[in-house]
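Instructor's aside before we start: the two examples that follow are unrelated to each other. I chose them only because their records fit on one page, so don't look for a connection. First example below.
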Amino acid sequence: MLVRNIQEFIHNLELRTELLSSFDLEAIFKENNRLNLMRSKAISNRLMLLYFCHNLRQ
């Protein structure tokens, strides 16, 4: 039983390693940067809109 559990554990580690090595890490990094930039722009646009609305009230 213990040997089987260890064998399954090793097999799962090997599968995870294969998955990680098959990912295009550079593409993932670029996509993450793109999403962060979009998020920053959205936050900036909301802040400008709030500032504009605040100035209209005064």
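Example two begins here.
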Amino acid sequence: MTTGQQPAHLIIEQFGTVRRITINNPRKKNAINMQAYGDLTDQLNAADRDDSVSVVVLMGFGDFYSSGNDISGILTSNQSVEERLKTSNGKLFNMVKAFYSFSKLLIGVVNGPAIGIAATTVILCDVLYMVDTAYFYTPFSALGLCAE
């Protein structure tokens, strides 16, 4: 059953005590933009507080878990570079914090490639189920950077 108002790039469904959060941006292989970071954080925090939820399943729509960070919104923002960095770093920090402070069972279903920030956050889940074609890739590591 789909629950209430849906965030733009997430599908939220409830099946008994199981809440499923699906990253839903198939046009960009489920890339996650700044709004989706905030929405995912809010959804994880809400599920953690909700007594009717005992398990959260996180997955991507279609054949990709997520292609990582969608920077298109950052590049077209009217904010200064400093403001953009502060905003994006704050949203990323809050999302990662929501993952590692989640007190219930968090299951990641990796239904395809997980790239960049998606690769490094999904491994914070308690349990991972992966299809045979799934893989993790951190592109910044090839440059000797640890941005993910």
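The chain has one domain: 10-143.
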